[in-house]
Amino acid sequence: MFKQFFFDDQRLFVRENLERAYGTTELVGTYRDHKICTSYCWAWTIKGPDGRTHLLYQGTVSGSGKMLMAAAISDDGIHFTPRNTAEEAGIKEPLLPNQLFPADLDGEMAGVIEDKTAPSEERYKILFTDNSQIPSLLYIQDYVFTSPDLIHWKKLQASCWNPAGTEPLLGVFFNKVSGKFTILSRPDWGQRRVGVTETSDWHYYTPLEMCLQTDSLDPVLAEIYGMPAVAHDDIFVGFPHIYSDYPQVLNTKYFAGTMHPEVSYSLNGRHWQRSLRTPFLSGSHPQLVERDGYASKMLFLMSAVKQDNGDILLCATTNRHEHGCPPNKIMADDTSVSIFKIREDDFIHLQTVDAQTEGRVATREIIWQSGELSVNLKAQKATCAVYGQAGNDVKPLPGYGHEDCVAFSGDSTHWTPTWKSGATLNAMTGKTVIIEIKLTDGIIVSFGGDGVPVMNQEAARYRRFGNLPQRKGF
Question: Rounded to whole angstroms, how far apart are CA atoms 280 and 302?
């Protein structure tokens, strides 16, 4: 099976009258703990063993600067209520009933993941950054907590995932290309670039290698604060957080400045490309401004969870203050955990340049295996055509033309093209085909089916020798 996304044009022959744009983000939920300021990158949603969505978050107790980790729960992934975890977890003298860890634990949650390969008692993991050694050694200690139920947690011994010691913000996911877990972390405390390390057992980790940093197209002195990321079908999607707009001083960039996530992508989880150099989400999102009455200076996006209906729910924290504002100056209502929704696959899409001009997109060769095509799009009108190829000679297949296609109009995440001739893609099993879609006044998000996308010589070798290419992650 394959799925064609539109982060770039690498596997396209044609992109005409179509421009690239982010998917629309809709604010659908707000959670505020009026006793905890969720002012930085400390909130993740994750499906629990009970089938419900759990929110694990961290912040400072309002007005005090004391750091706590807490929990909330939801039936729909949108509306959350605090969960009475302190008693269940056996926390002695908790400060709050929804407390998740003892109050004297000095550190931060850096990432949360479900590990389906682990024993049940270690199914859920928190990558933790221990700050207790900072005063004496000027080091952060990085290790892992495990849990069977997102309530009871214990430290996993010999689980240091970055020997140099670093801090949030990070990405962690299971990488089906390498068969390991990939961690995207800063190389060192305060060094705002993205490094990559992998593990298969949470005890041994590959040496950290650099994979992404800001470049000459970024704002003056901008840094990548961190990059949460998810595995999504055939690709990996990251959210590099751009920290910028601070004063130019001869010191560490900490006080003042703003934060917003953009979008990046990878075919193998190790090598990353950035996409549009504009905010995917920002504190000036119109629905946030309408809700709060102000634009937040910082927005952190930590998790993207796919729902049963295909929608993706994004969990973000917002803060009306700029970076480095003293914790005792931030009130709980200055911050929030916000839930946004995007349609299935729609991190990025192609859209028609105007309502009158027809857009056209055509793939490179695909070795079709079986079944039909599924297309995620919204359009006033759309049609599909299929072409065959022999050498450099590309010809429209009889009965598979745009004029034969039953035109589509509307909004569907799974449109299956049909042809009045009775032609089917399934009849092309074992053949190399080129698929072309035309649309008017709309967007195309993705399409896929049971096929193997190939480049020119791979296609030529397949047609002559019948050998499918053996490759992963590129």
Answer: 13
pLDDT of residue 470: 83
* Type of residue numbered 364: R
Structure tokens at 354: 């105007």
Residue 232: count other Cβ atoms within 10 Å of its Cβ: 17
State the pLDDT at residue 423. 97
**Mean pLDDT per segment of 10 residues, for the chain of length 474 residues?**
96 98 98 93 96 96 86 98 96 94 94 97 98 93 97 97 94 97 96 97 97 97 97 96 96 93 98 97 98 97 96 98 90 94 98 97 97 98 94 89 98 98 97 97 98 94 92 76
Amino acid 328: pLDDT: 82
Q: Which amino acid is at 281?
A: L
Measured CA to CA, the distance from residue 145 to residue 28 in angstroms comes to 31
Q: Residues, the chain, total?
A: 474
Domains of the chain (ranges plus CATH)?
A: 2-21+349-465 (2.60.120), 25-342 (2.115.10.20)
Q: What is d(CA 356, CA 289) in angstroms, rounded to the nearest whole number?
A: 33
The token duo for 419 is: 């042809």
Structure tokens at 348: 């990025």
pLDDT tens-digit map of 152-176: 999 999 999 999 999 999 999 999 9
The predicted pLDDT at position 66 comes to 84
Q: Has this prediction a pTM greater than 0.90?
A: yes
> Quick one: three-class SS letters along 208-265?
CEEEECCCCCCCCCCEECCCCEEEECCEEEECCEEEECCCCCCCCCCCCCEEEECCEE
- Return d(Cα 36, Cα 64) in angstroms, integer: 10
